[in-house]
Amino acid sequence: MYPISSQMRAFVAKTEAFTCDDPSLAGLRQTYDRMCQAFTPPVPAGLHIADFSVGGVGVRSYRLQTPDPAEGWPCLLYIHGGGWVVGGLDSHDFICFELAATLQVLVIAIDYRLAPEHPYPAAYNDCRAVWQAIQAGEGPHAINLERQVVMGDSAGGNLAAALCLGLRDDQQALPRVQILIYPGLGGPADLPSRADCWDAPLLSSADTDCYLALYLRGNGKPSPYAMPLLAADFSGLPKALIAVAQFDPLRDDGRLYAERLQAAGVETVLYPGKGLVHGCLRARGQVPEVDRLYDYLLGYLRSELLTQV
């Protein structure tokens, strides 16, 4: 039994109520989509949402229904979670709504290809294609290239970190900040959180192994762009905010990544996520400790995305 709050316990129960007798991949995705829909709030008033393609990859943009700023939109590139296997543009509307409406920035969510049909490096390549197309001025929005952030949760946090590694290695333009929410970064199996949280609510250690195996399917030696903790060098990367969940087998992936970034001289903040579980971003407005995480995230983003370089 994990000592989570009564509000968090209610959120976990509501999430786990979405079960399916169909064990197939299609059944898993349909169940996940139904669960996500149940936690998606109405579209905030005054928000404009559009689906289009950038760099040959589907994306969804969220912005206020106002003219483009003269200097271009501050832009947050959002990469959704789901173990690289489930999820899409609809699954993370809930957080993209809030980021765009509250911060009054342009949010672009990436509809990357999913495993196991499209194993690594498909999702990574899709994220790079979108980033590079934005730098080239593609897409319908004027973007301030000096004010760009990349953010992702879970598998999306993995992809955000990997994107920053690849861009640095190729000496390309980097985002101002990387924000990783309970990311899976390919940490070793003997990390304490794997044992401490082996049967944690909403994500077990066995789940993490299964998802990673589907993502790496058919690829021999793992790459740091698939498992960022394998990187030999962590210097020269964008400053980072890494938020972990206390009761999550992936907790120590984020902690270890923060340590390695800090040791390499990268300005890094680690949010310890006391009382949190994996996937809890959907508990906005239902669980006080999740609301505190949002307050911290939004405050950090305001200071990094909306201030002068």
From TrEMBL:
<dbReference type="Pfam" id="PF07859">
    <property type="entry name" value="Abhydrolase_3"/>
</dbReference>
<feature type="domain" description="Alpha/beta hydrolase fold-3">
    <location>
        <begin position="76"/>
        <end position="281"/>
    </location>
</feature>
<dbReference type="InterPro" id="IPR050300">
    <property type="entry name" value="GDXG_lipolytic_enzyme"/>
</dbReference>
<dbReference type="InterPro" id="IPR013094">
    <property type="entry name" value="AB_hydrolase_3"/>
</dbReference>
<protein>
    <submittedName>
        <fullName>Alpha/beta hydrolase</fullName>
    </submittedName>
</protein>
<keyword id="KW-0378">Hydrolase</keyword>
<dbReference type="GO" id="GO:0016787">
    <property type="term" value="F:hydrolase activity"/>
</dbReference>
<dbReference type="InterPro" id="IPR029058">
    <property type="entry name" value="AB_hydrolase_fold"/>
</dbReference>
